[in-house]
Design brief:
The protein has about 170 residues and is α/β, with parallel strands linked by helices. It has a domain of about 110 residues: Rossmann fold (3-Layer(aba) Sandwich), CATH 3.40.50. Strands 3-1-6-7 form a four-stranded parallel beta sheet, sandwiched between helices. Strands 2-5-4 form a three-stranded antiparallel beta sheet, with no helix packed on it. Helix 4 packs across helix 5.
């Protein structure tokens, strides 16, 4: 400060722009939730939309993508809502007409995703919800985010969340 005027000098060497950038940089976690289904394919596991989003906001925030599908072995689920299909399961039979044999979870448990969220300590968690069939798993991840940190901003995006007339598209809390 200049003693004469009481105002900052224009030749100040303090890096105000750097301070401004440090204060505003937030941590964003982009999550592709696991799915529960009879099968999974490689094209369904690639989190392309989240990667585009990460590239776009990476200059303004610290971003991490959590891919809840790739790299996990399927976990067979014995209890599910499709028991009427049990007679059609074909265990150990592989033909062009045998599309599935078990109902599985493709990805980590919700608690495992919660541990990742706890470790990352993000300010914002954004969850991809591309398909109505997987709404339940996306909502589980949103609820887990709120369990980990009730103050965390939790956002859901994707085709399903924009077009659904369910709590996914209208609720502001998980």
């Amino acid at each position: 400060m200049s003693i004469e005027s009481g105002r900052p000098r224009s030749d100040s060497s303090f890096p105000f722009r750097l301070l401004f950038a440090i204060v505003l940089l937030m941590k964003v976690l982009l999550v592709q939730p696991p799915i529960e289904d009879f099968y999974d394919t490689r094209i369904r596991t690639y989190p392309l939309g989240l990667l585009y989003l990460a590239a776009r906001i990476g200059a303004a925030a610290e971003v991490k993508v959590v891919d809840g599908r790739t790299g996990y072995k399927p976990t067979r689920l014995r209890s599910h809502e499709f028991h009427d299909l049990t007679p059609f399961y074909r265990e150990n039979t592989y033909t062009p007409f045998s599309f599935f044999s078990h109902y599985c979870r493709f990805g980590p448990s919700v608690r495992e995703i919660g541990r990742i969220m706890e470790a990352e300590r993000a300010d914002v968690t954004a969850i991809s919800s591309l398909c109505s069939a997987y709404e339940t798993q996306a909502l589980e991840v949103a609820k887990e985010a709120k369990r980990v940190n009730p103050q965390m901003v939790t956002v859901m995006g994707g085709n399903h969340s924009r077009s659904a007339s369910s709590p996914t598209g209208t609720s502001t809390t998980a």
